[in-house]
Amino acid sequence: MWTDHVLVLLATVSVLAVVQSLFGVGLLLFGTPVLLLVGLPFANVLAYLLPCSIVVSALQLATTGGLSLEPIRRDFLSITVPAVLVATVAALLVGSPRQLKLVVGVVLLGTALTRLGRARRVVAGAVRRHTRPLMLLLGIVHGWSNLGGGILTVIVSASYDDKHSVRRHIAFAYGAMALVQLVVVFTTARPHVGVLLWLTLPAVAGLVYLLVGQRTFRMTREHGYQAGLTALIACFGTVLVGTA
Predict the structure, then answer these.
(1) Dist. CA 214–CA 18, nearest whole Å
(2) How far, in Å, CA of 50 to CA of 31, rounded?
(3) Between vectors from CA 26 to CA 20 and to CA 30, what angle results, nearest 5°?
(4) Full residue range of the structural domain in which residue 145 is found
(5) What are phi and psi of 231, to 5 degrees?
(6) What burial class does residue 141 get, using C-beta atoms within 10 Å of its C-beta: 0-12 exposed, 13-18 middle, 19+ buried?
(7) What global pTM score does this model have?
(8) Per the structure, how many domains does the chain have?
(9) Confidence bin at 167 (pLDDT 50/70/90)
(10) In angstroms, rounded to a whole number, what is the distance separating the alpha carbons of residues 234 and 222?
(11) With contact defined as beta carbons under 8 Å apart, do 44 and 193 qualify?
(12) Which residues are CB-contacts of 149 (< 8 A; sequence separation ≥ 6)?
């Protein structure tokens, strides 16, 4: 692999691991378009980023109470995970539709705007009433494009108010989706990756979480966290619309 690509990978993982440390998502959603723009094949992007995302998600779960199958997690396992599996296989075989990024981006920008005012509770109520269809949409979008983090954030933030619950549930879902995708990638696409780099990047992501991300999360106040979450959703939408 070119030296420039290695540097871009290291920089991307280091920066976005901080974002994912705070909000539970970031490495895949922001990392995927960046690495595609520098010329890496989609399968290679997945092969490099998924282990990093899994490591950060696992550390978040380990430091915030572990696993429990609450209703939202049961719906996720029964609806989203199969959709991710099927959609990832489809993406590797036929590619991802371009229109998907634009549609999801517009929806996320609209969601971010509603979180700024009193309409937030109305939107949150609508999301809670339609959680299962949104879980299915999440699986399809994430498997097909690796860009479902914004939808996941919307679903979870509508169900939980405190930052610990929000990040814990996002980490569980994001990690599970990444595991499914990683298995599919290496059993179907068999990407050519540098072994040393493939092992180094997850270690970098884990160190960033332990040394920077977790400390920053603890210092962030609830109001600031929710404002940051809104900004993150808006950024997701902007990135998707801008790269559509």
Answers:
(1) 8
(2) 10
(3) 150
(4) 3-243
(5) -65, -40
(6) buried
(7) 0.84
(8) 1
(9) confident
(10) 19
(11) yes
(12) 25, 26, 28, 29, 142, 174, 236
pLDDT in tens, 66-100: 666 677 788 888 999 999 999 988 888 877 666 66
Please write down the HEC assignment for all residues of the chain: CCHHHHHHHHHHHHHHHHHHHHHCCCHHHHHHHHHHHCCCCHHHHHHHHHHHHHHHHHHHHHCCCCCCCCHHHHHHHHHHHHHHHHHHHHHHHHCCCHHHHHHHHHHHHHHHHHCCCCHHHHHHHHHHHCHHHHHHHHHHHHHHHCCCHHHHHHHHHHHCCCHHHHHHHHHHHHHHHHHHHHHHHHHHHCCCCCHHHHHHHHHHHHHHHHHHHHHHHHHCCHHHHHHHHHHHHHHHHHHHHHHC
Whole-number Å distance between alpha carbons of 125 and 241: 26
- Residue pair 32/241 in contact by the 8 Å Cβ criterion: no
Report the range out of 35-39, 70-74, 151-155, 180-184 with the highest average pLDDT: 180-184
**Token pair of 15 as six digits:** 């920066």
The amino acid sitting at 154 is V
Best CA proximity match to 45, nearest among 149, 189, 174, 213:
189
What burial letters (b/e) apply to 191-206, b meaning 16+ CB within 10 Å?
bebeeeebeebbebbb
